[in-house]
Amino acid sequence: MDPITILAAAKASYEALKAGIAVGKELQHMAQDLSSLFGSVAQITRIAAEPHRGSLLAGKSAEQMAMEAYAAKAEADQLMADLKNQFVGQFGLAAWDQVVAHVTQIKKQQRAEALEAAKAQEELMANVAGVGAVVLMFLVIAVVGMLLLIR
Question: How many folded domains does the chain comprise?
Fold first, then answer.
């Protein structure tokens, strides 16, 4: 996805959060919007930090793509700064720090679980391949044995 599209999603999440904070909405009711905004900003940051490896999108030059990524990142950073200021004003700095710490902790846990699941899948595939090889060996031995008995 291009940074402009991701930025549009970030802006929508930001506006929903801004409205929620303004009316004193409970934090848990804003979790989806907060997650969406954090995810969009992280995605824009990755795009801006890494050069595009695919083909040129819609005939855009490398300079255009780089400028779009930079502008989107700058705007996303400003959205996050504004959100932080509003959040801190409503709930306090400790609440913001707690939310950011929880987001970091949860993302680390999710990455660890994904790595563990991938490792388990890899081990399962290795075991299946091993069992398959043993079964194939027995089948070959059985066929050879039957051929020898028939003669």
Answer: 1
